[in-house]
Amino acid sequence: MSNAEGDLYIGIDLGTSRSAIATSNGQRHVVESYVGWPLDMVARKVVKRDVLIGREALDNRMMLDLHRPLERGLLKEGSEKDQAAVRQLMSHLLDLAAVREVRDGGAKVRAVVGVPAEALRVNKEHLREALQGLVDGLIIVSEPFAVAYGLETLLHALVIDVGAGTTDFCMMNGHYPTDEDQRTLPNAGDWVDEQLATLLAERKAEVNVSIHTVRQWKEQWSFVGEAEKPLKVTVPVSGKPTEIDVTDEMRQACEGLIAPVAETMVALIAAAETEYQEKIRQNIILAGGSSAIRGFAQRLEQELAEYGGGRIKVVDDPVFAGCDGGLALATDAPGADWEKLTT
Amino acid sequence: MRQNDRIKRSLVRELVEENIEAIERRPRGSLRRRRRHQRIRWGWWLLSGAAGMAVGALLFFLVLDSGGRLYRQWAGGGQVQTAADDGSVLDTLGEVVLPAGFTRPEPLEPTVIPLAVRHIAIDPGHGGEEEGTITGTGLMEKELTLDIAKRLRRLLLASSFTVTMTRSRDEDVQLKDRARVANAARADLFISIHVNWIPNRQVRGVETYYLGPTNDPHLNELAALENRDSGYSLADYRRLLDSIYADARSAESQRLAGAVQRSLFSSLRRTTPELSNRGVKCAPFVVLVATEMPAILAEVSCLSNEHEARLLASPAYRQQIARALFEGIRNYSAPPETANRGGGKGKES
User: Fold this and answer.
1) Per CATH, domain A189-255 is 3.40.50.720
2) Which residues of B touch A175 (CB under 8 A)?
3) Across the interface, do B4 and A154 touch by the CB < 8 Å criterion?
4) In terms of CATH architecture, what is A8-148+320-341?
5) pLDDT tops 60 at residue B290
6) Residue B192 counted as domain residue
7) Is the pLDDT assigned to residue B77 strictly greater than 60?
8) Which tens digit of pLDDT belongs to each residue from A119-137?
9) Fewer Cβ neighbours under 10 Å: the N or C end of chain A?
10) In terms of domains, do B36 and B153 share one?
11) Contact A175 B10 (CB under 8 A)
């Protein structure tokens, strides 16, 4: 397990909502996965850029052809613009980590990029095409596997990665996970946003807010179970700032995630060899941005009670857990193997 | 710690292999299998050598000890018979030799006893070098059918069915071998999953087939396409068709096809209101010929249609298709009020 001196190894979590990068020279950056091109000459004059990325793109979205190129954690199919957006996003991440300078200096850049557990081979091919020429070597890995590897949770463990686009499950049995060890659910952070927006439209028809605003509320105040205090937000109603209570809607939207996640978690554990099920139940890792929903891990533990109980640990750093794992894999892959994985 | 390092090395090696296979467009697991075969070959040579030496030594001592008794025992011959539990006798070929006064029982008509459907054989279409239809963006039928089949398997197992897969990975399996797997497992139903390619690329629809003759040139063409590399000679094929068209199994296959088609159409139409119901049809698909149970071939979507192809790229839509197939099987297997609503755990054979 060694790598050539001078070469740069990087782990990337290319997420639906956020993308993060960690490098072997200690750089760590995160950006929101938005890419926008100015709609016209006027917009270009205002934003003073050919392309905007991340929060900046989101804040100027009225003037931009805005793209969130990763849908459910995968590169959207059939749109050249989305392929270009992924490339821009990756270039931006690599620039933040000063990768270009490393390559200009003659060193090689080798990247491990995480994708949803059940991504098809064709999805990975599209990603490989989009990243061609940006790095010297590329390994594509299942995101929850990367999390498990980074945490060195390799045996009798279950990783649940609740992202924005997908919730990914990966059973770690000491061998490389097969399709049977992994699951992907479409119920994740974006799904909660959609539920919350629908509930608000049904119950508070006078409120007209964008999905971006709903997403921000969720990121700040999402919870399941009892609310610590009433959740009140101020929104314009007929142009007038008005305070509304969204406690029940937030709870209901977030709790909708519990049943599918718990059901899949139990099904995967039940499919494991009987003698290891207890160990696995005590060794469940919750990762991904949506693992920050307050009370979520405890509710999943409650769901395990009737199966003999279990312990769910939330990763310390949900934003970087995936790319840290990717970085660990990149540095551990033998140099000779990297030669076969050129882009 | 040392164990952890060993596991890590093995995980990294397998991850790298998976990526190399993807780059070189090899079937998944092919590099691992090649490595295992090399190990097995080495092991076999070593074992053969050791076994040869051991047999040589044993023969040497036997000849010295018994002075020819061994030869006489070999030359004696004679038929070996084994008593079975019921008093009948099995001859060397495994045929039952009935005691005097007993007659061979006649098989029962299938309709006499309502038989429960417990065991489903799932056949993901194509595989290995047989990629099936493929879109310009590289979405392959063989990959989609396997993914949907695995999702269907999970749903069936969760509802206490037993499941046999004709293939569980990206590999070539001849059509006649697919039927052989299902027959050997004594499956109650055979479900072959395919994704359609229709020359008129505006068409988006689902259709389900059971075995039978057809005069429709399009269906004959489709069957010819799916029947490539069947592994049957023309004579075999004609003989099998003659025996099957008149079979009572045909009626059950038609009923199963109807249940699955209804479920597919009603479920998928919710996502795609433009979906057309292309109906239940009969066509001479080889994969359905040699099965000994009601068998259907479902064309669950049209990869030739751009919108359908985009939908198929989403795990949620593939799950919806698997769920629709599952509901169709369940509706066929039992009336809705008695249908198995899950709770138990199935098994794989």
Assistant:
1) no
2) 10-11, 14
3) yes
4) 2-Layer Sandwich (3.30)
5) yes
6) yes
7) no
8) 777 778 878 888 888 899 9
9) N
10) no
11) yes
DSSP result, A121-170? HHHHHHHHHHTTTTSSEEEEEEHHHHHHHHHT--EEEEEEEE-SS-EEEE
Q: Print the domain residue range for B265.
A: 119-337
**pLDDT, tens digit (0-9, with 9 covering 90-100), for A134-160:** 899 999 998 899 999 999 999 999 999
> Are B187 and B266 in the same domain?
yes
Q: How far apart are CA A19 and CA A6, in angstroms?
A: 25
Angle between helices A80-96 and A121-130 (to 10 degrees): 60
Q: Which two tokens stand for residue B325?
A: 């197939």
User: Which has more pLDDT, B57 or B298?
Assistant: B298
**Does the interface predicted TM-score (ipTM) exceed 0.95?**
no
Q: pLDDT-based confidence at B237, cuts 50/70/90?
A: low
Whether the Cβ atoms of residue A137 and residue A110 lie closer than 8 Å to each other: yes
Domain limit, last residue, from B12, B31, B61: B61
| Nearest CA distance, B302 vs chain A (angstrom) | 16
Q: How far apart are the CA of B68 and the nearest CA of chain A, in angstroms?
A: 54
Please, are residues B325 and B298 in contact by the beta-carbon 8 Å criterion?
yes
DSSP string over B255-276 = HHHHHHHHHHHHHHHHH-TT-E
How far is residue B9's CA from residue B2's CA, in Å, rounded to a whole number?
11
In total, the C-beta contacts within 8 angstroms joining chain A to chain B are 99
Neighbour order of strands in the sheet with B96-97: B82-83, B89-90, B96-97
User: Per-residue pLDDT tens for A16-70?
Assistant: 888 999 999 899 999 998 999 999 888 898 888 899 999 999 889 889 998 887 7
What CATH code is carried by the domain that includes residue B312?
3.40.630.40
Count of alpha carbons within 13 angstroms of residue A15, beta-carbon side: 33
- The answer on pLDDT for B153 being more than 80 is yes
Q: In whole angstroms, what is the distance from residue A21 CA to residue B34 CA?
A: 35
Q: Which residues on B lie below 8 Å from A122 (Cβ)? A: 137-140, 143, 313
From chain A, pick out residues whose CB is under 8 angstroms from the CB of B11: 149, 154, 175-176
Nearest-neighbour CA in chain B from A141: distance (Å): 7
Of A166, A267, A332, the CB nearest to B158: A267
Same domain, B165 and B282: yes
> In chain A, where are the structural domains located?
8-148+320-341, 189-255
B207 and B278 inside one domain: yes
Q: How many domains does the structure of chain B reveal?
A: 2
Domain boundary among B36, B61, B86: B61
In chain A, which among 108-127 make CB contacts under 8 A with chain B? 116, 118, 120-126
Distance CA A260, CA A270 (A): 15
Same domain, B42 and B123: no
Using CB atoms, which residue from A125, A186, A329 is nearest to B15?
A: A329
CB contact under 8 A, A176 and B18: yes
Same domain, B159 and B27: no
